[in-house]
Design goal:
Blueprint lengths: L10 E7 L2 E7 L8 H6 L1 H4 L4 E5 L4 H13 L3 E5 L8 H4 L4 E2 L3 H7 L6 H7 L5 E3 L5 E5 L2 E5 L12 H14 L4 H15 L12 H12 L1
Parallel strand pairs: 3-4, 4-5
Antiparallel strand pairs: 1-2, 6-7, 7-8
Helix pairs in contact: 7-8, 8-9
Length: about 220
C-alpha cells in the first residue's frame, strides 16, 4: 500500500432513507491507483489466487488489472459498484462478474430475462438479489441460492462482504455452488451488525452459521 502526501484516504458516506442505502464516494487516494502503480506491484498482484476488483479505483486501472490477470490465467472477480458503464471487452475477460440486479439491468440494457442473460454469460455472471439471495449459471442450469434468514440491522457492506467471502471460498477450493452459499451466508450475517467493516463476519462464524442451517 502506497502512502501519498497531501491526499486523504478514500471515503464512502452512506445515507439511509426508507430503509435503503445511498452511498456517496469521495475517492481520495483511491483515485490515484494508476496503471503505473499497478505495474510497479504486478509481481505481488500475480501471487494472489483470486484478484477482486470494484469501481472505487480508476476505470483504466481496472482494465489494466483485468488484462494482466487474464494473460496470467488468474481468477478475477469484478464487482461493478459503484455503477458506471463497462467496456464489453473487459467484461469478457473477467472470470466472474457480480452485479446486483439493478446494476445488471444497467450493464446490459435491453436484456429482459435475467436467467437468459446468465446462461448467455457462460457461467461468468453472478447476480446478487437482495432478499432473494443470489443466482448464477452452472453448465446451462440456473443456480438459485436462497437468502439466509437474518435479523437485519444494517445492510451497509453486504455486497462487499458477499464478494470478499466468494473470493475466500473459491481460493479455498470450494465449488461454485458451495462458494455461493458461503458468500450468501456471510452477507446475511453482515446485516445483523452495524457498519460495513464492523459487520463483516469471520470465516469461522460463516462456517458455524452454515452448520446450524444444515441441521
Amino acid at each position: 500500500v502506497q502512502k501519498l502526501e497531501g491526499i486523504s484516504s478514500g471515503l464512502a458516506l452512506i445515507t439511509v432513507a426508507e430503509k435503503d442505502n445511498c452511498i456517496v464516494v469521495v475517492p481520495g487516494a483511491n483515485g490515484q491507483v494508476s496503471p503505473a502503480y499497478l505495474e510497479s506491484v504486478k509481481e505481488q498482484v500475480l501471487q494472489a489466487d483470486i484478484v477482486l476488483l470494484q469501481n472505487e479505483i480508476p476505470e483504466e486501472t481496472i482494465a489494466a488489472a483485468v488484462d494482466l490477470c487474464s494473460r496470467a490465467g488468474k481468477t478475477t472477480i469484478y464487482n461493478p459498484a459503484p455503477m458506471r458503464p463497462v467496456p464489453e471487452d473487459l467484461l469478457e475477460k473477467v472470470t466472474y462478474l457480480t452485479p446486483n440486479e439493478h446494476e445488471a439491468a444497467l450493464l446490459f440494457p435491453g436484456a429482459k430475462d435475467l436467467e437468459e442473460l446468465m446462461k448467455a454469460g457462460g457461467g461468468r455472471l453472478i447476480v446478487t438479489l437482495g432478499s432473494e439471495g443470489a443466482a448464477a449459471c452452472r453448465e446451462g442450469e440456473i443456480l438459485r441460492i436462497p437468502v439466509r434468514p437474518a435479523k437485519v440491522m444494517d445492510t451497509t457492506g453486504a455486497g462487499d462482504t458477499f464478494n470478499g467471502a466468494l473470493a475466500c471460498a473459491l481460493a479455498r477450493g470450494k465449488e461454485l455452488e458451495e462458494a455461493l452459499v458461503f458468500a450468501n451466508t456471510a452477507a446475511s450475517l453482515s446485516t445483523e451488525k452495524y457498519g460495513a467493516q464492523g459487520g463483516m463476519p469471520t470465516a469461522e462464524e460463516v462456517e458455524a452459521a452454515m452448520g446450524e442451517e444444515s441441521r
